[in-house]
Amino acid sequence: MVYQVPPETAHFVDREDEQARAFRAVSEWKGASRPLCLALSGLGGTGKTELAYRLARTLRDRYPDGVLHVDLDDLRRDGAVEVTDALGQLLAALDIEGRWLDRTLRDRSRQYWDRTDGRRLIVLIDNARTAAEVVPLLPASGDSLAIVASHGPLYDLESGSAVELPLAPLTDRDAAELLRLIVDDPRLVEEPEAVGGLLRLCSGLPAALRVAGQWMRRHRRRPLARLLAELDAELTDRGLPMVEAVWDAAYRSLDANAALLYRLVPLLPGGSFTAEGAAALLGRGREAADDALDALETAGLLDPRGQRTRLPDLLRAHAERRAREDGDEGERRAAATRVVRWYLRQGQRADLLAAGPRLTVAAPAGPVPGAPDVEFGAGRPSDAHRWLEAERHALHGSVALALRLGLHAECWALGEPLWTHFLDHPHHAETAESFGLAIEAAQRDEHPPALVRMRSQLARVHWERGEFEEAAAQLTQAQATAALLGEGERDRKLAASVVEFRGTLHGRRGDWQSAAADFAEARRAHRAIDNAYGVLLGTYRLGEALAALGELGRAEELLVQARAGAEEQRRERIAARAAFALAGVLRRLDRPAEARPLYEAALAAARARGADWDEARVLRAYADLADEQGEATEAARLRAAAEAIEERRGAAAG
């Protein structure tokens, strides 16, 4: 009996789900004259071939007539496989001598069908690229099994003719376990940060982890931090030895659009991207981008994850090498500029939908040629909030990219939609960094109104982190710059806004008397220029301050006004926050029945916006109300929900 599978590798982790699906498919198969086909697909280096071998070894007793193996890349010339040669290799394994092999594809196919009919074989087909390469190699027996490994899905394989088993890169946990099995080394315990860097570098690819293990064994005296830097430089410069040729071959098989998109993908800000983002990068319309993405996925050069796609670090380095060798700086700069302007435009559109018309400094960005706009679901504010959260890393990355490109106006302008996002999703560290870059860009752009706005926004980030002196310093500079502005409506709004920010800082420091004075001053200034939104915001803030000062009657009056005004202006976030503040006042006035529906409304609004910080805050206050009403079970449920959100947020921040 022929058996063409090598001995198993010393270490293997994960893939339990894929193996279970494969074994279940084998046990349930009731084919007549068509073999069962297991189609493994995944990036180069994910371990498809080793899993195929493992399946063949485990299942060999079910298929006593032999295990055949053909690697199509060994037979590939200029990207194409001569199927006749592949059939010849399989027939040779079935004891047909070369002199008895038929010459034509048709006749050789008939020989193969005759030799495989009624037999119980495993045929392992490695490195397939299309179904046209696979179908002629399937044995002519329903009692046989074909295991096909390809870098991307074989979309042209007839639907239902194969059990698809896509392989994602290993999780960090499984990758760490594989690395520990490959090299038992105390440095894996002693240097956890370096180990984390090593895992990120290896991108969950078993092939890369084996290279990392070899380096660790070879350099046992070097600290892992040093080894990581050296390995990073080696892999970035030269690539992963065992799959570099595979990736090069896949790249060479792409058409011009797909090859260009692959070279440009490393420019995209953020860790993952959507089809719309890819279209903005390519700049040739959505259809061209969709076709290019399909080609890249089929070639195994992308890692699709639902609606978003990512390029693992090692493939990113490969794409950058291809860009250096095959692209030019002009195409890269044009693409990066296009992406920044596209993200700015989409961010501004989302900001307007999510927050409504408000004080902004940047002019609306125009359409970007070749880069269609995003459709925000059903066009609800909550859809825009969800888009901002989904694209937050890309938006923050666009700020840094814009500054590197010298697009100073675009850089600080991105800070405005990021402000709307921050109010419901306070990711402090990245927001502080982006607002700091926006301030630098506004200084280089010599744009005082932008400086006022960005410094005020950064001040809030500081005080929410308890950095009150830093916040005060930013507001002092913002106020000094605002004093130099003119008497136009926008400039007067900006000056009043700084006073409102100062009042909020006073409140955070517990000086509610000064806070109330600032809110009243800002409210008068907005009323003088007939700025309805500014008056609304001042009314809400002043109501909060008076509640903190114990002036509950006046606070109730103002918060009722603020909520009604927010609903009239369709300001969902302010309406919800005014409802929350009003509920707190009513509790203190011993009117819990009136407070309860306000908490319900605030909770529903927070959930609709995906504002988990607000949701947790409302849940805790609502739990306190339940306790006051003797509803201990309900209070415990509400607090547990708040704790789950806070735990999730903590894990995400970590």
Round the mean pLDDT to the nearest integer and report it: 91
Low-confidence runs of at least 5 consecutive residues: none
Largest sheet, spatial ordering of strands? 2-5-6-1-7
**What percentage of residues falls in helices of 4 or more residues?**
55-70%
How many strands, which pairing sense, and closed or not: the largest β-sheet?
A: 5 strands, parallel
What is the CATH C-level name of the domain at 16-166?
A: Alpha Beta
| Shape verdict | elongated
Q: Tell me the name of the CATH homologous superfamily of the domain at 16-166.
A: P-loop containing nucleotide triphosphate hydrolases
Distance between the termini: 55 Å
Computed Rg: 31 Å
Q: What is the CATH topology assignment of the domain at 16-166?
A: Rossmann fold
Number of H- or I-type helical stretches: 31
Q: Note the beta-strand portion.
A: 5-15%
Question: What structural category characterises the helix and strand content?
Answer: alpha/beta
CATH architectural designation of the domain at 16-166: 3-Layer(aba) Sandwich
The strand count comes to 10
Short description:
This protein is an alpha/beta fold and 654 residues long.
Structure notes:
The protein is an alpha/beta fold. Among the domains are: about 15-165, Rossmann fold (3-Layer(aba) Sandwich), CATH 3.40.50; about 170-255, no CATH class; about 255-325, Orthogonal Bundle (Arc Repressor Mutant, subunit A), CATH 1.10.10.10; about 330-445, no CATH class. It is about 65% helix and about 5% strand. It is built from 31 helices and 10 strands. The chain has a 5-stranded parallel sheet, with helices on both faces. Strands 8-10-9 form a 3-stranded antiparallel sheet. A two-stranded antiparallel ribbon has the order 3-4. Helix 5 (about 130-135) links the parallel strand 5 (about 120-130) and strand 6. Helix 8 (about 190-200) packs across helix 9 (about 205-220), helix 16 (about 330-355) packs antiparallel against helix 17 and helix 27 runs antiparallel to helix 28 (about 570-590). The mean pLDDT is about 90.
